């Protein structure tokens, strides 16, 4: 009957080379994108591990006291203070400090964390905008959304009015 061997067509070899080239390029692109994703994931895991190693190296003994652990956390937080926009929030010093524990949701250790990054007054907290709240949450390693739920900005504004 008919002999339909596709390899006997004059362009068969050229079509095979084109398909091989396209398959190779697709494989390269998929591999490249996959590798970038893996590298990003590994870099974030490395940063987390490096932080944990730094914390471990700062501990003088295996059974460190809670004050030593507290100091490590406060030092780590103080190192990130430059990430906050103090031009917008405002600058203050320990001499001007308000008792931030009056704000519902701020306890003694959280107040120390805020002091470590340079937040001392109700006025600074009242000046927070959405970006500042997210940044402060991240820097002081606090629960996301907690500042908003406890309405720190509103409480701080009310306390300023009472002063």
TrEMBL record:
<keyword id="KW-0812">Transmembrane</keyword>
<keyword id="KW-0472">Membrane</keyword>
<feature type="transmembrane region" description="Helical">
    <location>
        <begin position="14"/>
        <end position="33"/>
    </location>
</feature>
<keyword id="KW-1133">Transmembrane helix</keyword>
<protein>
    <recommendedName>
        <fullName>DUF4332 domain-containing protein</fullName>
    </recommendedName>
</protein>
